[in-house]
Structures are given as structure tokens and as C-alpha cells.
């Protein structure tokens, strides 16, 4: 068994994707353990240049199981767009598994992110407007929607109604925007879900089976330590922990299973690019 967590030491953009791409050649599984479509890993190979925002960097290797763990913020439309890009560029169909316990970035998360940044004006946080902060706010307020809920529309509707109880007040009275309908959102999500349901799996069991079988697993982090909510440049961090300590939580394995942490840093420090 060999489990390696690959994380960034700076603000992100250190080249983690390149390291995962190199090491994936000898891996059996690559796991994204946190974050969403708000940051990307750039990979250049025989198929061209790719910016992966959600897909693990092992998708170019047919033998690898590529997993989106429970800690990931899943934007269905962004996921499908990336997958279509691989197909259009001739990349062989990758083996992808999405945790049924991962949660969904909902349309209202994207709207809230955009409206709040616009409202703050010169005091805006510089959000990527991918709905990440509103997503994690809902997750920890216990009104988020799990991937598993896509199979249970009634439960999903209850979760959405609980979220909209406060969000529609903000839309109407703070942002002066129209309110949203739970029924409409359920229909939209069920339609979008058709493209991802074949990938949904019990990834916690899957990764534990891989551990038992002595497989080589890479845990792929997003951004870097200086974007951590507790140890980074508050109030300008990301909304999930990019530290190696969170890798076990976001992937679904014991901390003791991680045998090696590979930290990627830059020759010179910069926040983006």
C-alpha cells in the first residue's frame, strides 16, 4: 500500500497537476479530496493542453480509477463540460467515480456568489464566482444537496426548500432579484443528473478496498496552504482546507493511511499564475 497526498505550499498554481500527471503513471487511483471548479490544474501531453478544474489529473491514463471524493464541490455542468472536452480531443474514456456523499453546487450558489461580489463593489473578495463559498456555507448549515439525493427527488426537494427559505429573502430584499422555485430547480437538477449518474459510486468503500489490496493511491489537492481558512490569508482564503491534514477527511480514509506528503512550491512566490 502506498498513499501520497500532493498539496500546494503557496496560494496555488505551484504545478501540482504536473506532479500528479507524472506520478499517476505508476498509480492505481487518483482522488480529488476538496474544492470545486474554482481552480484548475494545467496539464500538457500528447493530446494537447488541458485545464482540469474538477476532473482528477489521472484521467489521461486508462488504467487509473479517478475519484471525486466526499469533500468535493461538484458542479454538474462543469464536470460534463470537462468530460466532453476530453472526448472531443481524442482522450480514451477514463474510469471516473463520483462519491455519492459529495455535495452539489446548485444554481443559487452561483447566483449568490455573483450578486454578493457585485454588491460589495470595491470591497469584493475577488471570487471566481463558481459558487464555492455559498456552497460550503450550505454544507455546514446542513441544507446542502448530496449527489445521492439525485436518486431521491422528494428528499432533494426538501433540502432545496430549506435552503430557499432564507435565500429567496436575500434574492428579493438584499439583491433585488427574482426568487427561485424549488420545483423548477428539482427538474433542472434531475435533467442534468443524467450525465453523471453512471459515475456515482460508494467511493469510501472503493478506496478502502484499494487500501486493503495494497494499491498505489494519489490524493490530489487544490490551491495551496496560504488559501486555508484557518492558516491562510484570512479573509481571502478558499472555503475548504487544501492542507494535507484534510486529505484523509475529503477522500474518506484514516489519517494514518497517508504515508507520504509531497508539497509543491514555486521558485518565486506569486498568488496567481
In spatial order, strands of the major sheet run 9-7-5-2-10-1-11
Element string (H = helix, E = strand): EHEEEEEHEEHHHHEHEHE
Count every beta strand, where a strand is a DSSP E run of 2 or more residues: 11
Query: Mind telling me which CATH architecture of the largest domain this is?
Result: 3-Layer(aba) Sandwich
Please give the structural blueprint.
Blueprint: E1 2-8, H1 16-24, E2 29-32, E3 41-45, E4 48-52, E5 65-68, E6 73-74, H2 76-88, E7 95-99, E8 103-104, H3 107-120, H4 132-140, H5 153-174, H6 182-193, E9 200-201, H7 203-212, E10 216-220, H8 244-251, E11 260-264
Parallel strand pairs: 1-10, 1-11, 2-5, 2-10, 5-7, 6-8, 7-9
Antiparallel strand pairs: 3-4
Describe this structure in words.
This protein has about 270 residues and is an alpha/beta fold. The protein has two domains: about 1-100 and about 195-265, Adenylosuccinate Synthetase, Chain A, domain 1 (3-Layer(aba) Sandwich); about 105-195, Adenylosuccinate Synthetase, subunit A, domain 2 (Orthogonal Bundle). About 35% of the residues lie in helices and about 15% in strands. It contains eight helices and eleven strands. The chain has helices at about 15-25, 75-90, 105-120, 130-140, 155-175, 180-195, 205-210, 245-250; strands at about 1-10, 30, 40-45, 50, 65-70, 75, 95-100, 105, 200, 215-220, 260-265. The protein has a seven-stranded parallel sheet, with helices on both faces. Strands 3-4 form a two-stranded antiparallel ribbon. Strands 6-8 form a two-stranded parallel ribbon. The longest helix has 22 residues, at about 155-175. The chain is globular.
Amino acid at each position: 500500500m502506498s498513499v501520497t497526498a500532493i498539496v500546494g505550499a503557496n496560494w496555488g498554481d505551484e504545478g501540482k497537476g504536473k506532479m500528479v500527471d507524472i506520478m499517476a503513471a505508476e498509480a492505481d487511483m487518483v482522488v480529488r479530496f476538496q474544492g470545486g471548479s474554482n481552480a484548475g490544474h494545467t496539464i500538457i501531453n500528447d493530446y494537447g493542453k488541458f485545464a482540469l478544474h474538477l476532473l482528477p489529473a489521472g484521467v489521461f491514463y486508462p488504467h487509473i480509477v479517478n475519484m471525486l471524493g466526499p469533500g468535493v464541490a461538484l458542479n454538474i455542468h462543469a464536470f460534463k463540460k470537462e468530460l466532453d472536452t476530453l472526448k472531443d480531443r481524442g482522450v480514451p474514456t477514463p474510469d471516473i467515480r463520483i462519491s455519492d456523499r459529495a455535495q452539489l453546487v446548485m444554481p443559487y450558489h452561483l447566483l449568490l456568489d455573483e450578486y454578493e461580489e457585485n454588491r460589495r463593489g470595491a470591497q469584493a473578495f475577488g471570487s471566481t464566482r463558481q459558487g464555492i463559498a455559498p456552497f460550503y456555507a450550505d454544507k455546514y448549515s446542513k441544507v446542502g444537496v448530496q449527489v445521492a439525493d439525485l436518486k431521491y427527488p422528494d428528499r432533494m426537494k426538501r433540502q432545496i426548500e430549506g435552503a430557499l427559505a432564507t435565500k429567496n429573502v436575500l434574492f428579493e430584499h438584499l439583491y433585488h432579484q427574482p426568487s427561485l422555485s424549488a420545483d423548477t430547480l428539482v427538474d433542472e437538477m434531475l435533467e442534468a443528473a443524467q450525465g453523471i449518474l453512471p459515475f456515482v459510486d460508494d467511493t469510501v468503500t472503493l478506496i478502502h478496498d484499494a487500501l486493503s489490496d495494497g494499491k498505489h493511491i494519489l490524493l490530489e489537492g487544490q490551491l495551496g496552504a496560504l488559501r486555508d481558512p484557518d492558516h491562510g490569508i484570512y479573509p481571502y482564503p478558499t472555503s475548504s482546507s487544501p492542507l494535507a491534514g484534510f486529505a484523509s477527511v475529503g477522500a474518506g480514509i484514516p489519517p494514518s493511511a497517508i504515508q507520504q506528503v509531497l508539497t509543491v512550491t514555486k521558485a518565486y512566490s506569486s498568488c496567481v499564475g
